[in-house]
Amino acid sequence: MQDILKVGIAGLGTVGASVVRLMAKRDNLLSEAAGRRIKVVAVSARSRDKDRGIVLDGMRWVEDPIALATDSGIDVFVELIGGAGDPAKQAVEAALGAGKAVVTANKALLATHGTALARRAEKKGVALNFEAAVAGGIPVIKTLREGLVGNAIERVYGILNGTCNYILSRMADEGISFEDCLKDAQRLGYAEADPTFDVDGFDTAHKLALLTSLAFGTLVDTKGISIEGIRSIKPVDLKMADELGYRVKLLGVALRTADGVEQRVHPTFVPKDSAIAQVNGVLNAVAIDADAVDLTLVGPGAGGDATASAVIADIADIARGHRTAPFIRPVASLTQPTRAPLTHHEGGYYIRLEVVDRPGTAARIASRMAQNKISLESIVQRRSGPVRGGTDPAAADAPAPVVLITYATTEAAVQRALRSMDTDGVLLGRPQVIRIERS
Amino acid sequence: MQDILKVGIAGLGTVGASVVRLMAKRDNLLSEAAGRRIKVVAVSARSRDKDRGIVLDGMRWVEDPIALATDSGIDVFVELIGGAGDPAKQAVEAALGAGKAVVTANKALLATHGTALARRAEKKGVALNFEAAVAGGIPVIKTLREGLVGNAIERVYGILNGTCNYILSRMADEGISFEDCLKDAQRLGYAEADPTFDVDGFDTAHKLALLTSLAFGTLVDTKGISIEGIRSIKPVDLKMADELGYRVKLLGVALRTADGVEQRVHPTFVPKDSAIAQVNGVLNAVAIDADAVDLTLVGPGAGGDATASAVIADIADIARGHRTAPFIRPVASLTQPTRAPLTHHEGGYYIRLEVVDRPGTAARIASRMAQNKISLESIVQRRSGPVRGGTDPAAADAPAPVVLITYATTEAAVQRALRSMDTDGVLLGRPQVIRIERS
Ligand SMILES: NC(=O)c1ccc[n+]([C@@H]2O[C@H](COP(=O)([O-])OP(=O)(O)OC[C@H]3O[C@@H](n4cnc5c(N)ncnc54)[C@H](OP(=O)(O)O)[C@@H]3O)[C@@H](O)[C@H]2O)c1
Ligand SMILES: NC(=O)c1ccc[n+]([C@@H]2O[C@H](COP(=O)([O-])OP(=O)(O)OC[C@H]3O[C@@H](n4cnc5c(N)ncnc54)[C@H](OP(=O)(O)O)[C@@H]3O)[C@@H](O)[C@H]2O)c1
Predict the structure, then answer these.
(1) Considering the domain boundaries, does residue A186 fall inside one?
(2) Chain B: nearest CA to A146, how far in angstroms?
(3) Contact present, B153 and B208 (Cβ < 8 Å)
(4) Keyword Transit peptide on this protein (chains A, B) (predicted)?
């Protein structure tokens, strides 16, 4: 066996404490699997006195995480502080600059500075591993970096935020509103006091940005992502989805199109019988469509132990001397992605309209859709029950929402059709438009 | 970049031809990802003249695969001939003996000689990679070897044979018999002319043996697997499963119990809302329950391109200089598994009985179950519809099968109860007993 691999960990919160605990638990087995003894020799966090429920015996306490990052006593710097700014950023930069391998779970940091950090790692010839940064315990980075290296990837998409999936799952099961569900999720610890980052889709976008780079060999381009969260989802949308054979998930989706790379985060209708539709509660899932294989990976996207599992795998790879470029190819080979405009997006749509209570409204809607060459799979009017494949003008008297499921069309056509309905004066309120993702 | 990695491929059938084709297609991108040029320099198969639809320009043709295995012009030997015997075995042995890294998709060979081959690889310090041998295009070996190395694994199970899954899926969807379905599968190329290896569970057992070793650090022990195939499954079983909230899958299951390692292959009831229940047709799935994460991986278990994807990933790992021990730990650290006797198996059961048409039969059955401390979740009699949570003696007049779903009990208790019913003379024909796997 080679020398001990000496690990320094900055951040002993939910993830950091689990890493220390699980590494102690696996101990010899981990070293045996990695072919080399692995030891946490130094740690850093804000408050030294906090009881973290872990044994820190034999580990040096270093006050300043940036000092730890360049400490001559460590080979690997594990950053589990979080945040796109300092001290996480400065610490990771310092560690790479000092030629230390780095492991981090910090999606915010990587989504913002991923390319620059990868360049630093490459320059020093050290690993920059971030399995835990996307989908927590699911080994999707390894799968993209190594497992699917023989493939050209066409699309990668997934449920990347457990909080949103928990809320949408409960809203669907219990018919409760977003607001009530969010409150409950906060009470149960599944959502933060400030939920914006999760429910408005930013966390999903950070993870998606990393998946996109890995899948398509592009520079990390968080700004190229179109982002919608789940606040606008109403119980009626989930009920209609169920009736029409779908579930609603907040997805991050990246795909290669003729126009470039399309990256989007939004609530999505997914067919009930798809693998991803079965992924409920806080679970995450990632689906990868490639030329030789289509894969779906399902597992825990967060939680101390699950995330620590990914961090430990990254450390073990370094112990083994395995190093894959952060974004698979050398940074110089990564291309600036052309952003496919979302107006070019092609797919089916769920459209829920509040309409004026007047005869002929449904006919008007159907004709506006037809004018824009949008074929309808179904029109449903809540009071009169589902009417498939046609309109039922008589039912338009009821002051009820009209729900449309379209066949594949473009986002631009949908927007045009909705604008003309608005001009017609048939719409009350803002239409709810949810994209359908084929599986 | 380092020197070119020179690859020799023996076997240019379904998988081998796809490997050659996909490697040519990926070409520079693959080399870039692996940090090193990779080139197929020599190939071998039985008939040189066969049109394989691939370009073999620039590759030497070597008649004898064993000569290719030790050819001084190659660094990696890729064995895609198949079969546990020669020439595959001899070729792989020769290659390892000559210090070549080996990649193989040959589950039969590894299930039979895996430990011995791993020992050879270890002695020479070369890779023995076999991602394609289990679940085709799903990167489950890498996930176990590397991705989950921080975990203690408790159970690994999966749908590992696409032929069986295809047959069971169609039987369930269309209500047709095993025999008719098999014929159709053969006609469509989803089943071999001699289907024994697939439908009787042996192929699943080979793959399970490898997963067990990886998950539990044990020597490959194919003989320790209890194997039942799917021939005995009747449409009525699939119909009852559906009514009771289950689907039927041929699973390979390995779990750590107090008595040792339990390894079994058999048709299984899985809850309809589990991820694995959604895996239909020729798809495969592997679920891994570990202490820090539970994962489910779904994807193509066979097919030229999907399998080639795994082979190419194995080759790329070698190009990168990544080497993990074949069964994670050094062979000397692998333990001989204690076989947990299946009579100790604990779980729920589906039991379908053909019973004599006599009042009191159902009561008799229920009391025999009770005597053996088996609690029933439901008793269903086909003619009288489902009766949950109790027996309905009046309904026993109908000459219909009785279906029981038990709560967790032991295999031994079930066998005892069935023997006493047999002694009571209430049974006609052989009971159908299908284990339920909790998700
Ligand atoms: N939690 C998850 O489930 C999960 C999943 C995937 C990825 N991640 C990522 O993992 C990282 C860590 O997340 P977490 O949930 O473990 O966070 P956390 O529980 O808030 O822990 C953060 C840790 O960093 C320390 N810290 C904060 N500011 C510091 C400073 N200025 N100097 C030194 N130490 C400082 C804290 O010290 P004190 O303890 O002394 O306050 C704490 O130990 C984040 O990047 C997050 O995005 C988390
Ligand atoms: N097919 C799948 O979907 C799949 C999936 C997972 C794993 N695998 C595994 O992959 C391996 C290859 O499977 P396959 O489906 O590609 O098999 P295949 O189509 O039957 O191809 C076998 C190849 O080996 C060659 N071969 C046979 N005997 C030989 C001998 N004595 N000397 C030299 N060459 C010989 C054949 O040559 P000719 O072409 O000249 O006859 C043929 O090219 C097997 O271990 C299988 O279990 C297959």
Answers:
(1) yes
(2) 6
(3) no
(4) no
Q: Which of B266, B300, B334 is the last residue of a domain?
A: B300
Q: Is residue B80 within 6 Å of ligand 2 at its C-beta?
A: yes
| pLDDT grade for A147, boundaries at 50, 70 and 90 | very high
Nearest to B278 among A138, A275, A323 (CB): A275
Q: What share of chain A is helix, strand, coil (3-state, %, to 5)?
A: 40, 25, 35
DSSP 8-state secondary structure symbol assigned to residue B83:
S
B13 among the known binding-site residues? yes
* Count of beta carbons in the 10 Å neighbourhood of residue B192: 14
Regarding whether B123 and B148 lie in a shared domain, the answer is: no
Q: How far lies A376's CA from each of A198, A216, A364, A366, in Å?
A: 33, 33, 14, 8
A252 and A211 in contact (C-beta within 8 Å)?
yes
The SS3 of residue A162 is helix
Taking CA atoms, what residue in A is nearest to B309?
Answer: A150
Does residue B315 lie within any of the structural domains?
no
pLDDT score for B390: 45
Q: Are B24 and B55 in contact (CB under 8 A)?
A: yes
State mean pLDDT over B88-113. 98
Report how far ligand 1's centroid is from the alpha carbon of A90 (Å).
15
Question: Do A388 and A421 fall into the same domain?
Answer: yes
Q: Name residues 146-175 of chain A within 8 A of B (Cβ).
A: 146-152
CA diameter of chain B:
82
pLDDT in tens, B319-342: 999 999 999 999 999 999 999 888
**Residues A229, A250: contact at Cβ < 8 Å?**
yes
**What range defines the domain where residue B273 resides?**
144-300
Extended strands (E) in B344-391: 346-355, 376-381, 385-388
Q: Point out the ligand nearest to the CA of residue A18.
A: 1
Verify that B258 and B367 share a domain, yes or no. Answer: no
Alpha helices in B358-437 (DSSP H): 361-371, 411-424
Q: If you write DSSP's letter for every residue of B109-147 in order, what string do you get?
A: HHHHHHHHHHHHHHHHT--EE-GGGTTTTS-HHHIIIII
The Cα-based distances of A9 to A48, A302, A305, B80 in angstroms read 14, 19, 15, 44
Q: Are strands A260-271 and A427-436 parallel, antiparallel or unpaired?
A: parallel
Q: What is the pLDDT of residue B340?
A: 87
- Same domain for B208 and B114: no
Q: Are residues A16 and A95 in the same domain?
A: yes
Establish whether residue A162 lines the binding site of ligand 1, counting it when its CB lies within 6 angstroms of any ligand atom: no
- For the record, the structure tokens of A396 come out as 């338009």
pTM summary value: 0.94
Average pLDDT for A231-256: 96
What's the CA gap between A109 and B2, in Å, rounded?
Answer: 32
Position B389 pLDDT exceeds 70:
no
A254 and A160 within one domain: yes
User: What residues are paired with B6 via a beta bridge?
Assistant: B39
Helical segments of B175-234, H only:
178-187, 196-199, 202-216
